[in-house]
Amino acid sequence: MTRRKAKAAKQEIIFTGFGGQGIILAGRILGQAAVIGDHRESTLVQAYGPEARGGACSAQVTIADQPIHYPYVRRPDVLVCMSQGGFDKFIGQMKEGGTLLIDQDLVQPRGFGGQFFSIPSTRIAEELGRKMMANIIMLGFFTAITGAVSVDAARDAVSDSVPKGTEEMNGTAFNKGWDYGLAVLKGREKKATGKAGA
């Protein structure tokens, strides 16, 4: 159901969280996947709060088929929140009918009446033994849910962007998020089919 958005000529995306979660890196990987892997246009605008680690930060990514003349995201089609502060700050800007993705242990989507997708990305990262990989898990989840970039392009960009020697571990993290996203979509499809058949 959200896959139709993959065909959009232009998508505006915001990843938000706090410093130390790898939010900017996730944005950079996404942009790289779009440009190098999928041969599209992409821009990245990053913003940090007053203090880097622990402060609010965001990565604004635009992906398009045509040259992008304005890199700032005003009305995100997709909002990815890995902190409550990020959700509170950006939820009012999200495009009507946009896609919201959250880390379910860190964000309560209070007051949001729309449909959203959640994953315990930080918890999964902790189970893998590396809390720092929550951003890569979220990126895998994002790729499965939105189809904004191809999975092969995203995997290659992850491998090229993470510290040497951690490629395999980060690849595993990405796949965990991807698989979780596919399972969520499948579950929703089943539910929708069940309702239609009722």
UniProtKB/TrEMBL annotation:
MF GO annotations: oxidoreductase activity, acting on the aldehyde or oxo group of donors
Pfam families: POR
Parts of the chain that traverse the membrane: 132-151
Superkingdom in the source lineage: Bacteria
High-level lineage: Bacteria, Deltaproteobacteria, Candidatus Desulfacyla
The protein's name: 2-oxoacid:acceptor oxidoreductase family protein
Span of domain Pyruvate/ketoisovalerate oxidoreductase catalytic: 19-177
Alphabetic keyword roster: Membrane, Oxidoreductase, Transmembrane, Transmembrane helix
UniProt keyword rRNA-binding present: no
Listed InterPro entries: 2-oxoglutarate_synth_KorC, Pyrv/ketoisovalerate_OxRed_cat, Pyrv_flavodox_OxRed_cen
